[in-house]
Each structure stands twice: as C-alpha cells, then as structure tokens.
Design brief:
single chain; mainly beta; seven-stranded mixed β-sheet; 11 strands
Length: 117
C-alpha cells in the first residue's frame, strides 16, 4: 500500500514562497507519476502540476506556470512543489497524488496553503 504525506503548508503573504513536500512510503517513488492538485473552498479540485516517472517531464496548469516548480528526489522518495510569487487565489488545500497509469490511485491527506493579500 502506498502512503503519501504532505507537509510544508502554511500562511504566507502575497508575493511570498512556500515549498511543499510529499513523502511517499510503501513503494519506490521512481515508478510513479506524481501530481499536485489543489482545492479551494467551494471549488472543485484542480490539477496543479505533475512530473512523469520515466522522463521526469513536467507539466503545469496555466495558472501556476512560471511560478511553481515540481521536482522529485527518488532517493528520498519525496516530491516537492516550490511555489513562488504566491497570490491570494493560490489559497487552497494542496494534495499530492500518485499513479502508474490512468487515474491517480493514491492521495495524501492534504496541506493547507493560505496566501494573505
């Protein structure tokens, strides 16, 4: 069973930065495509970024492109989301997720990010 545990959320002023971490246990991280999603109050969960397991290619939602960076450390079984130039609209619960193919099968419990204006 794969377990994902996010950390690094918090309260930050607009323009600030945070780095989220997602520690993976139970399986080797290198075989999974990892994604970050977020859900703001009253809104549906949305895709933020992902990093492929094989090529380490990265993909971003347009709303975060150029500000957020996803990366992975397979030796530490951890994936990161570096978030810079944060905006109040980035406020949400952030989730990491893992998949091999198809839908994301495993999800973390989420970490709250609040950006004040």
């Amino acid at each position: 069973q794969v377990q994902l545990v996010e950390s690094g959320g918090g309260l930050v002023q607009a323009g600030g930065s945070l780095r989220l971490s997602c520690a993976v246990s139970g399986r080797t991280l290198s075989t999974y495509t990892m994604g970050w999603f977020r859900q703001a109050p009253g809104k549906e969960r949305e895709f933020v970024a992902r990093i492929n397991w094989g090529s380490s290619s990265t993909y971003y939602a347009d709303s975060v492109k150029g500000r957020f960076t996803i990366s992975r450390d397979n030796a530490k079984n951890t994936v990161y989301l570096q978030m810079n130039t944060l905006k109040p609209e980035d406020t949400a619960v952030y989730y990491c997720a893992a998949r091999i193919v198809g839908n994301y099968n495993y999800w973390g419990q989420g970490t709250q990010v609040t950006v004040s204006s």
